[in-house]
Structures are given as C-alpha cells and as structure tokens.
Write a structure and sequence with these properties.
The protein is an all-alpha fold. Helices cover 75% and strands 2% of the residues.
Length: 257
C-alpha cells in the first residue's frame, strides 16, 4: 500500500472509533465527567476545606491534575479494550488481518481512537475544574507531552487486554483489580511527602505516581519526583507496550480462530 492508501485506511479506522464513542456519548463521555465532578465537590470543596494545603497548594488545586489524568487514563483504556474486544467477538477483526492494511495502521487507528476519547474527556473535565478552582498551566509543553504519552500508553494497554480477553467479563478484570488501585495509590489524593519513609519508597514502584506527578508539575509546577525520570519511565513503558502489541498483532495470537 502506498502512503495515500495507508492514510485512507488509518483515517477510516480512526473515524469508526470516534463515531463509535460519539454515537453513544451519554454512556462514554457523560458518566466520567459526572464522576469526576463529584470528586471535585466531595474531595475538593467539602473535605479539602478541612484538610487545608497539600504540597504548598490548596487541596482542590492539588487534586485537580490527578483527577484530570485519572479521567484520561481510564477512558483511553476502556475505549480501546471494549472496541477491539467487540471486533474480536463479532469476528470482523479477521477481515482487517487478511486485508492489505499493514498491522501498524490497524494498531494506530484503534489506539488513536482511544487517545481521542481520553483527551476529549480530559478536556471536558478540565473545563469543569475551572468552576471549582483557578486552574493555570505552569508548563504547557510538558503538560501536552505527558497527556499524549499517557493516553497512548493506556490505549495500547487496553489493546493488549482486549487480545487476551476471552469474555466481556475479562475486559473489566484489569481496570478493577489493577488499574484502579494503582491510580488511587499513585498520589492523586495525597503527597508522598506525608508517607513514612518505607511506604514512600514502596510508592516509587507505582508507575502511576510518575504519571500523576509529571502532569501535576506541568500544571502547578510542583512534583514529588524527578520529571526527567518520570518522562523516561512513561516513554519506556509506551515503547514496550507498542512493541508487545505489534508482536501480538503480527503473530495473530488469540485473534485468528
């Protein structure tokens, strides 16, 4: 396939992914916005007013970046895992695999659909956050880079989960038992400076800590970790996830029946 044909294939897959979640926006876009808004009200206004400052900022300012990133992560992941597993379940993914469309075009088309949903929900949540706090961006470039890298990483993770899933129940195991605990323990609601030395060290093993703090640094200019290290870790995980996703796609493992 030449470049034009590849672009048509990519835009067709991406267009299908975007139309899919926009067609049912009451199920895909509205619920996460309502959920995060409740977090703003409960943790930001009600509890936050009693907590006071966290990391040198009001508690509302402190938690907003983490909640925005949580919305991006969960929606990027869930969009791809549900969409690609649906393609497996309905057996039309096999048509893509036998077509002349390169596998990397298929992968990027699906992944960018997840990225678009994650960024769209993140944008709406950011707009909602402006009603609760004076939101500013300290480093726009860092903010954009970490959001894009994170959305791509978790879209790839959702793709891998979809390949290994054998039922619709399987696509909820990772978000429920792995993703959600890591997010909540990743510094969204607290600073690691409050933790005892041992638990602060254990927290360093949580990749979500680096993602949340890198984004918080981009928005507020404050972080509990080294930003260069955070970017390298996120980039490393993204490269590994992409390589593994391509390996699974090229091998046809669990895809060709």
């Amino acid at each position: 396939m030449n470049f034009t044909e590849q672009w048509i294939a990519f835009s067709t897959i991406l267009g299908r992914e975007i139309k899919r979640f926009m067609r049912i926006w009451l199920q895909t876009l509205l619920p996460p916005v309502i959920t995060i808004t409740l977090y703003f009200i409960i943790f930001g206004n009600l509890i936050g007013s009693r907590i006071g400052e966290m990391g040198g900022y009001s508690y509302m300012e402190f938690v907003v970046p983490g909640l925005i990133m949580m919305a991006v992560i969960t929606n990027s992941y869930s969009n791809v895992v549900s969409s690609f597993y649906g393609a497996k379940f309905q057996r039309f993914v096999e048509e893509l695999l036998v077509s002349p469309t390169p596998n990397y075009i298929v992968l990027w088309g699906v992944v960018m659909g997840g990225v678009c949903r994650g960024l769209l929900v993140g944008l709406v949540v950011t707009l909602v956050a402006t009603f609760f706090t004076d939101l500013r961006v300290d480093s726009p470039l860092l903010t954009i880079i970490i959001v894009l890298m994170t959305a791509i990483l978790f879209s790839l993770a959702g793709f891998i989960n979809a390949i290994f899933a054998n039922s619709f129940d399987d696509i909820s195991i990772v978000p429920t038992f792995i993703l959600t605990p890591l997010i909540y323990l990743g510094g969204v609601f607290y600073s690691t400076e409050l933790l005892p030395e041992f638990w602060a060290g254990v927290s360093q093993l949580n990749p979500m800590l680096y993602i949340v703090n890198a984004f918080r640094h981009g928005v507020l200019g404050a972080s509990d970790i080294n930003i260069s290290v955070a970017l390298m870790i996120v980039a490393g995980f993204t490269v590994l996830a992409y390589a593994y996703a391509m390996h699974l796609l090229n091998s046809g493992k669990r895809l060709r029946q």
